[in-house]
Amino acid sequence: MTIGKLWIAVIASLLALTSCAQSEIAPLPTLAPSATPIVVTALPTATPIVRPTLPPTWTPVLDTSPASDLPAATPTAERMPAVQFVPATPLAVCAAFGEDRERNSRTFVPGTEPQVFWTAVDGATSYYIALIDDTGTIVFEGYTADPTIVFPAELFAPGRLYGWEVFPIDALGQQMCLARGAELFPEGLPGRQ
Questions:
Q1: Which of 66, 131, 161, 174 could form a disulfide with 85 if both were Cys (CB 3.0 to 4.6 A apart)?
Q2: CA–CA separation, 145 and 162 (whole Å)
Q3: pTM (predicted TM-score)
Q4: What is the average pLDDT score of the chain?
């Protein structure tokens, strides 16, 4: 027998088996009789999502008009708030700016008014000073012309730790150096003798 006849015999046998198998399968019984016949419908067609787009003829254009064509800025009577600015390159005067460790004490007696000192900066017209408690809350903030400040005793709560920070401000109202500061501990606090 040739290979071609062998294939025909195999295919004929398979067809015979499948036709016999289909006639012998009984339909499955229905569990509950259905009063209404089930109608199979086609799946609904999907609605495409429409998004607004630019027209195909739109092309971005670089504005090359000279600056003189732009409208002139109109000054207003409103005062703009001073912008705090730290120069990208630190000023040479900032190198020595910081806590005056020779005059400062990091501890104070509760009920007294602690005084803190920092080094003066040439060109500074004032200094921003802030007192911050151990939760990060600013308890006091203000400005002074001198490189020192005395904090009122009522700012300090018993058992709390504090820190202060200061930075110089120039004649234009701009921050000259990064803020510097130190901790301030009340005496008698456990672990802070």
A1: 174
A2: 23
A3: 0.53
A4: 77
